């Protein structure tokens, strides 16, 4: 098993030369312990996180109250770094513990008054999406779930369901089940034509698939740190800046108010995306997540995407050659960062691969998610081990 990087010149688009790639790999100690192809589930933690954790303890050990000011600088810096990665202006992103909390906050901005009371989504979403909007049924939200009849969204069918009754259309940029991406420019154009807002769960793409929210004109984008962004415990929300003044979350907290730091009750909203903040934030996760984000931003998502496509292509080619059923789309523009394989007894196969030091995930299908720090050799190691498992 190859554990230390490519044994021959890598034939991926050279976003990093071999030396720089080895240096990048050295930033992720986990890669020295296994073949880690699981970044669609949980990204590898960068070595620099250890220093942040240590400093955090030092801060707690020597606590003074004005630390909160530094922590707010750190929190804002992380939110603005996410914004930069999304092609969004500073101040247009807010963070919180998880995507579910932020989605519910977005959902609480609407009255769901007929005739515009529909929330259109699909049966390929992460379970939090239908669950949150089902809960808002109490306030009038009419949930309309478009069936995929399989693993791939029929975008024509989705768009056919959008009309003047549609308030929101909420879809993932790439499905966590199949890795298939939605054609966002097309969806945004169609939704805006009928006066609906587009809410995108980009957890499975941000960090591995380029996304320019400003160019797209998309209304709301959510995602989080612990997958392709190599962070931990924090999620983010972007709202199109010119839409922000129209949205007033009922689920809110004191940090969303204009007088938050006077500790008086606010009478208006804080500027920008901060109106979607909640209560006291947890700074550690943003501070730790900054490390991975900086490493990835230094490479650039276009280059990461080229690398990712080369590695997922290798997995696809090997799967096709071995006769393994592929669930993900094979066209590069239709797939995200993951390749999903339909293998018998997949969950047990995943566990047995782990005992061989090959780490992937299983969510109905075996999911292999190589990131920019992985190599073609590692994808081959995965496929070799998988073929052995299937022919046991
Ligand atoms: C597409 C997608 N959305 C959302 C989530 C997670 O949401 P939350 O942060 O609420 O746990 C995940 C995975 O963890 C995901 O794959």
TrEMBL record:
<dbReference type="InterPro" id="IPR015422">
    <property type="entry name" value="PyrdxlP-dep_Trfase_small"/>
</dbReference>
<dbReference type="InterPro" id="IPR015421">
    <property type="entry name" value="PyrdxlP-dep_Trfase_major"/>
</dbReference>
<feature type="domain" description="Aminotransferase class V">
    <location>
        <begin position="80"/>
        <end position="380"/>
    </location>
</feature>
<dbReference type="Pfam" id="PF00266">
    <property type="entry name" value="Aminotran_5"/>
</dbReference>
<keyword id="KW-0456">Lyase</keyword>
<dbReference type="GO" id="GO:0016829">
    <property type="term" value="F:lyase activity"/>
</dbReference>
<dbReference type="InterPro" id="IPR020578">
    <property type="entry name" value="Aminotrans_V_PyrdxlP_BS"/>
</dbReference>
<dbReference type="InterPro" id="IPR000192">
    <property type="entry name" value="Aminotrans_V_dom"/>
</dbReference>
<keyword id="KW-0663">Pyridoxal phosphate</keyword>
<protein>
    <submittedName>
        <fullName>Selenocysteine lyase/Cysteine desulfurase</fullName>
    </submittedName>
</protein>
<dbReference type="InterPro" id="IPR015424">
    <property type="entry name" value="PyrdxlP-dep_Trfase"/>
</dbReference>
<comment type="similarity">
    <text>Belongs to the class-V pyridoxal-phosphate-dependent aminotransferase family.</text>
</comment>
């Amino acid at each position: 098993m190859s554990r230390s990087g490519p044994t021959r010149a890598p034939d991926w688009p050279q976003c990093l030369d071999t030396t720089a790639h080895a240096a990048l790999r050295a930033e992720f100690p986990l890669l020295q312990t296994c073949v880690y192809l699981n970044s669609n589930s949980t990204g590898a933690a960068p070595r620099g996180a250890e220093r942040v954790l240590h400093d955090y303890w030092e801060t707690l050990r020597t606590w003074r109250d004005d630390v909160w000011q530094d922590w707010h600088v750190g929190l804002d810096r992380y939110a603005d770094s996410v914004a930069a990665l999304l092609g969004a202006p500073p101040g247009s992103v807010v963070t919180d513990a998880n995507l579910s909390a932020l989605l519910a906050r977005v959902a609480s901005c609407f009255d769901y008054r007929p005739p515009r009371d529909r929330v259109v989504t699909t049966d390929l979403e992460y379970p939090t999406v239908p669950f949150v909007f089902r809960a808002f049924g109490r306030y009038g939200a009419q949930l309309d779930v478009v069936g995929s009849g399989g693993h791939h969204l029929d975008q024509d069918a989705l768009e056919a369901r959008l009309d003047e009754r549609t308030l929101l259309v909420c879809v993932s940029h790439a499905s966590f089940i199949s890795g298939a991406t939605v054609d966002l420019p097309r969806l945004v154009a169609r939704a805006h034509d009928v006066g609906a807002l587009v809410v995108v769960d980009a957890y499975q793409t941000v960090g591995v698939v380029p996304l320019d929210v400003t160019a797209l004109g998309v209304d709301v984008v959510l995602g989080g740190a612990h997958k392709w962004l190599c962070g931990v415990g924090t999620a983010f929300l972007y709202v199109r800046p010119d839409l922000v003044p129209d949205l007033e979350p009922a689920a809110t907290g004191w940090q969303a108010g204009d007088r938050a730091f006077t500790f008086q009750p606010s009478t208006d909203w804080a500027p920008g995306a901060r109106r979607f903040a909640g209560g006291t934030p947890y700074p550690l996760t943003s501070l730790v997540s900054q490390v991975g984000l900086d490493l990835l931003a230094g490479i650039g998502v276009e280059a990461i995407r080229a690398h990712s496509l080369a590695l997922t292509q290798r997995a696809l080619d090997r799967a096709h050659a071995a006769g393994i059923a592929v669930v993900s789309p094979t066209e590069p523009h239709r797939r995200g960062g993951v390749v999903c394989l339909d293998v018998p007894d997949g969950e047990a196969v995943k566990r047995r691969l782990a005992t061989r030091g090959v780490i992937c995930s299983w969510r109905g299908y075996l999911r292999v998610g190589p990131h920019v720090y992985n190599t073609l050799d590692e994808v081959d190691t995965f496929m070799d081990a998988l073929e052995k498992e299937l022919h046991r």
